[in-house]
Structure formats: C-alpha cells, structure tokens
Write a structure and sequence with these properties.
The protein has 10 helices and 10 strands. The protein is α/β, with parallel strands linked by helices. The chain has a single domain, classed as TIM Barrel (Alpha-Beta Barrel), CATH 3.20.20. A 6-stranded parallel sheet has the order 3-4-5-8-9-10, with helices on one face. A two-stranded antiparallel sheet has the order 1-2. A two-stranded antiparallel sheet has the order 6-7. The chain is globular and about 50 Å long. The two termini are about 25 Å apart.
Length: about 280
C-alpha cells in the first residue's frame, strides 16, 4: 500500500483498513464457514498494511473478536482496533439495542475480555435512531469509560449532524462511522462537517449494504463503465471515489474472501481520472 494515511485517535493509519463484520457465519452470527480462511484474511490485511481494524463484540456474539485475537494477538504496535457498543445479540442471533449507560459499559467490558486488552483504542457509540435513552447520557457514559481508562477515545456511529455537534461540545470525537457511498449520500451534511473539522469519517457499507437484495453501488452503470475503461473492478472504483472525496475519509471494507481483501486494499493506489469522477458524479 502507498503512504496514504490520516490520524486516528492520535496515531496515523492507512486510509484503507478492514471491517470484521463479515467474518462470522451467515447473518453475522456463529462461526465462519471456513475458520482458517478467516484467520488468513485477518493476517493478510494486517501484513499488507491495514492498521485500522473495525469490529464489535456483537459481530457473531464474540466470534469476530475471538478470530481477531487468535490471528493477531499480541497485536502490532501500530494497529488501531476500533469497536462499538450500543447493541447486543441474543443466543439465537437476533440483534437488539443495548443503549443504556450500564449496557454500554457491559459492551466495553465484553470487548476488553474477548480481545484481551486493557484498553480498547477507540470505542464507537452506536446510536439507534429510535433509542429512548437521552443522547447526552450516553455521551457522558462514554466519557466516564474513557476517563476510567477502559477506552482510549470516543467515536460515534449512526448519528445525526446535531448529535455530532452536541457531542463535540462535551468531548473530542475520534471518528464518525455513518452510512455513505456512491449510491447513498444522504449523510452529506455530516460528511462535510467532519471534513471541515478534520474528524475521520468512516463510511460503513462503502460498497453497498451487505443485506440489500440489489447492490446499487457495484451495479451502477457509471461505476461498471468506469471500471471497464480503467481496467479495475467496480469495487475499486467505489472505494477510490470515497478516498478522493476528502482526505479525512477512512475505509473499512469488509470481506471474508482473501481475493476480495487484496482487491480492496489495492484501491488505495487507484486514482480516478476526471472522466470517471464526472461519470459517477
């Protein structure tokens, strides 16, 4: 990977990292289809320079974290592990909210244990849009966890522009992780605010939702046409487009496939020309 980095929680990370959500089994629950391959993917992305890894204890009910631990512990000094709290999975695999301050703490402790860490470098507060827990109470709980030393820095996920601005009045925000890609730019105002503030913006589903029936990013005619003309893949077009939107964009494309992992990391070296940028908009 080329030297294309940006600060995250006080450390520079390569702008193309890795997201672990697809490592567990179907429906982001249970063991992976091929455990050894999952471990190989993790080791490959880190060896290739991806030093920003995104995970969550509720990815597989501890499965993603356990795989990360087996593959990478003791962790490289430059690796920034980012996890998130605000949700839980029950024994049947169903995802449910865990938004109350005491549940946020439980989530942090579960991450510390499963990753075998004394402190998680960055912990994202994943806000549910319909949460009945006041947002300021959640931010205060995250600040308390940081002050206790259990987390190194506070990130936000699935938040509004107003919530982002409110949280920044209380504490430094390490990153924002919201949905944003070629086909869905509804978060543009928050995207622009993070760029102006120099806060890392980490778009989830950069290649389109993993749960959608149709992928509106990779099948977009302009994306397919540009990929064919440039001799790259549609995924690389979509990732390169995000990287060229703003220097504070950090990517965490997730995959359980080693070939796809190679393809995603190679996007760091792709520079879309003016024609491609005009076509995809």
């Amino acid at each position: 990977m080329n030297d294309n980095s940006y600060p995250l929680a006080g450390r520079r990370v390569n702008r193309v990292g890795y997201g672990a959500m697809q490592l567990p089994g179907p429906g982001v629950f249970g063991p992976p289809r091929d455990r050894q391959h999952a471990l190989d993917v993790l080791r490959f992305v880190v060896e290739a320079g991806a030093n920003h890894l995104d995970t969550a204890y509720y990815y597989g009910l501890g499965v993603a974290n356990e795989l990360i631990h087996e593959a990478l512990h003791p962790y490289p000094e430059d690796l920034v592990l980012v996890s998130k709290v605000g949700a839980q999975r029950d024994a049947g695999g169903d995802l449910r909210d865990a938004q109350r301050p005491e549940e946020l703490r439980e989530g942090v402790l579960a991450n510390l244990t499963s990753l075998e860490l004394d402190q998680v470098p960055v912990m994202n507060l994943r806000r549910h849009a319909k949460s009945d827990v006041p947002f300021d109470e959640q931010v205060a709980a995250m600040v308390a966890l940081r002050d206790e030393g259990l987390i190194g820095a506070i990130g936000l996920s699935n938040v509004t522009l107003e919530q982002y601005r409110s949280a920044r009045k209380v504490t430094e925000i390490a990153c924002v992780q919201n949905g944003y890609n070629l086909a869905d730019r509804s978060d543009q105002r928050l995207f622009d605010s993070c760029a102006a503030d120099g806060v890392p913006y980490v778009p989830f589903f950069p290649l389109g939702s993993a749960f959608a029936v149709e992928n509106t990013v990779l099948t977009a005619p302009a994306v397919v046409t540009s990929a064919t003309r440039l001799g790259i893949t549609p995924a690389q077009v979509a990732l390169a487009w995000l990287l060229q939107r703003s220097p504070n964009v950090l990517l965490i494309p997730g995959t359980s496939s080693l070939p796809h992992a190679r393809e995603n990391l190679a996007a760091a070296a792709v520079q879309l020309d003016d024609e491609a940028l005009a076509d995809v908009g």
